[in-house]
Amino acid sequence: MKIAVIGGGYVGLVTGACLANFGHGVTIVEGDPTRYAMLASGKIPIHEPGLEELVALQCEKRLLSFAPDLRGALEGVDAVFLAVGTPSRRGDGHADLTYIFAAVRQVAAALTAPAVLVTKSTVPVGTGRRIANLMQELRPDLAIDVASNPEFLREGKALLDFMRPDRIVVGCAGGHARALLEAIYAPLTARGAKLLVTGIETAELIKYAANSFLAMKISFINEMADICERVAADVADLVQGLGLDSRIGAQFLQPGPGFGGSCFPKDTEALARIAQDAGAPSRLVESTIAANSARKAGLGARINQACGGSVAGLKIAVLGLTFKPDTDDLRDSPALPVMHRMVEDGATVHAYDPQGMEQARLYFDDNVSFHDSAKAALLGADVAIIMTEWAEFQRLSARDMHQWMRGHCIIDMRNVFEPSAFQAEGFSVTGIGRPWSAIQARPLAEIRSTRETGSQRS
Length: 458
Hints:
CATH class of the largest domain: Alpha Beta
Low-confidence stretches: none
CATH topology of the largest domain: Rossmann fold
Radius of gyration: 24 Å
Strand order of the largest sheet: 3-2-1-4-5-6-7-8
Number of domains: 3
Helix content: 40-55%
Mean pLDDT: 92
Structural class: alpha/beta
Number of helices: 20
Shape: globular
Strand content: 5-15%
CATH architecture of the largest domain: 3-Layer(aba) Sandwich
């Protein structure tokens, strides 16, 4: 098959590289000059494990190429995948379809032969029908089928999710689109992957429903963690007890500071608006959005409380800036408002993340110091806050942190550490949903006393 992918961002790049890996000839069209220049020179503008190597391999095989515009890129194509951004529209939470319909118009003008137009981007229910009507209006001379093929990629595990999917969802109205997409994904279905064919509207809704359900699981376990803290229960055991139930499962039941990223915040907002517009409001989705917003808003107060009432004058090390590990994505990351709040409350903030440093600097002036290692950020710190569960942080030892830090207060927003090991080194550890015996707020006077005596042992 000859395939064009419109958009060289996260979804487009992963999709194009993986389809090329199946043996299809793929051209990724990226209109942003800076991003195109990076891709054309062999550089990947995002961090995704294994993607750089896969792109290089497929380019070497001449199965994958890049183009700055549609001229020539659509010549003789069997399918065109739309993988452009659909961010939340400012003001109302609806998905902004500006880029989608701009791309559709460009494709309509450039196509010279019949093809299948596949929406890979996450779009509201009814978008596929609108695209089909627009294509019929713009190119009545061509038989152009429209299909929906939503992506289900987890950042940090995108290649695994594409190559070993739980399911492949295809929404279409015509037999030609179905047959083409079945042929495109034949390498996966031959290995047992489930391909579900539905109507276009159903496929569009599946994507929103899936992400909203997972976001709801996160908000649910965060609320359970709050209950655990007040009744001396342990959320780790609670998660195990729930996860062993095959009807529930343990995935997305890890408590923390709230969900972020490029999908859950915007997709829950969009589904809530879709439901309202359809006259069938989703109270559960609306409550999920409210619960997550409240959790993020309460992080500052939680940190101040763990520090004995105030962080003013303290040196705080923030480890982890991305919304999850194994990505450089900071969109809606809980770490960003936490850092802003700590600065506003009078703390000196020192930060480190294995992949998110370059992006993080764009969010702050000179009021945050960025470091090139966890050790550098922790040196002389009174308080350490773990915001992202990078494997690198899980390997930090209590003894090393005791040597590097001046104070001995840890606020573990991801339950990375085992409290007993750190308490044995004299640390006060505040976790999420752990028994009160393991969550002891460090008295502010004690933190300041440690700070003033300069007990750092570097």
